[in-house]
Design a protein that fits this description.
Layout (H helix, E strand, L loop, with lengths): L14 H7 L9 E7 L6 E3 L7 E3 L1 H13 L4 E6 L17 H12 L4 E6 L13 E2 L2 E2 L1 H18 L3 E4 L6 H11 L6 E8 L6 H7 L19 H13 L3 E5 L5 H10 L4 E5 L1 H12 L5 H15 L3 E4 L2 H9 L1
Parallel strand pairs: 1-3, 1-4, 1-12, 4-5, 5-8, 8-9, 9-10, 10-11, 11-12
Antiparallel strand pairs: 2-3, 6-7
Helix pairs in contact: 2-3, 3-4, 4-5
Length: 324
């Protein structure tokens, strides 16, 4: 009798065989590319802590949106630096602010792109926190009324998806109510349901000029040690009407992504955040890693963990590599 030998390596011998049995596939259609818009015209200034990412005026943002669409990337998320800041972040719902103007211009010039509007107040307040203050405490319910204004203004500008990132309790229900009252029933909500108080956000705060002027955001963003709490946040946001559930950051929380994926039937998004991006760029610049290989491996890990949507600053490069 001939002894049977188990040899999993048979399924790895050639690239075509590996492709035939590959369990997870990464596609350009998985990506959302974040852009940062600023006041002015013909502005394109590289963000020092995020090589390859830029502050763009609205006209240059439209140019980039065309390039993104031509690469097959289906969506952009729009962040912005306002012309003015105040205690309540009123520039966040000003229709003349760069974000609203950029959404409107991109929708007019590149209508096939799905536009995600980030709803938060940190880059619009002069104190850098994500809501209205009462002393040094962010007033949850007062903030909800402001977030409703931001969401409606972005929908009016042409956003297809509203993405609240503030982590106030009840904000999904409040935003859904405000959108529906204004007739935006087809505008969906991608909730930053599981957003951790993470050290990986540093470069973004540089890019969006959104660092808090005192304290930190641990009183409203999640404790990185908790995963059961994440499931509570997910359940609450789904009950309030969220259409898509996000986990942020992505790479250090893939275990949470898998828990979320296994427990819900909604689409799951992850945010491959600025710190994750910057570390790869720095290592690649020093010749320590193969950037293309690391990026595609990292993004694939997010898909393997259960993400349907990946918000990533690598999207343009990854789209070119996948096409190549």
């Amino acid at each position: 009798m001939i002894e049977q030998k188990l040899r999993p390596r048979r399924m790895r011998i050639t690239e075509n065989i590996r492709a035939m049995v590959r369990e997870t596939s990464l596609s350009v259609k998985d990506f959302v590319y974040p852009i940062f818009v600023v006041p002015g015209e013909n502005v394109k200034e590289e963000i020092p802590s995020m090589p390859g990412c830029y502050h763009l005026s609205v006209d240059r943002a439209v140019e980039l949106a065309r390039e993104i669409s031509c690469l097959g990337i289906p969506s952009v998320e729009v962040f912005g630096l306002p012309e003015y800041k105040d205690e309540i972040g009123s520039s966040a719902w000003d229709m003349n602010s760069p974000v609203q103007r950029a959404i409107k211009a991109i929708k007019a010039k590149v209508p096939e792109l799905a536009i995600v509007g980030d709803v938060c107040l940190c880059q619009y307040t002069n104190h850098g926190h994500c809501g209205q203050l009462c002393g040094h405490y962010v007033d949850n319910d007062a903030t909800l009324k402001l977030l409703q204004k931001v969401a409606v203004s972005q929908a009016e500008a042409g956003a297809d998806i509203i993405a609240p990132s503030d982590m106030m309790d009840g904000r999904v229900a409040a935003i859904r109510e405000a959108l529906d009252e204004k007739g935006f029933t087809n505008v969906s909500i991608m909730s930053y349901a599981v957003k951790y108080a993470s050290g990986y956000y540093g470069p973004f705060r540089d890019a969006a000029d959104s660092a808090p002027q005192f304290g930190d955001r641990r009183a409203y963003q999640m404790d990185p040690a908790n995963s059961r709490e994440a499931m509570k946040e997910v359940a609450l946001d789904i009950a309030e009407g969220a259409d898509i559930i996000m986990v942020k950051p992505a790479l250090a929380y893939l275990d949470v992504v898998r828990q979320v994926r296994d427990s819900i039937h909604h689409p799951v998004a992850v945010y491959n955040v600025s710190g994750e991006y910057a570390m790869v760029k720095a290592a690649a610049a020093n010749g320590w890693i193969d950037e293309k290989r690391i990026v595609l491996e990292t993004l694939t890990s997010m898909k393997r963990a259960g993400a349907d949507i990946i918000i990533t600053y690598h999207a343009i490069d990854a789209a070119k590599w996948l096409k190549g």
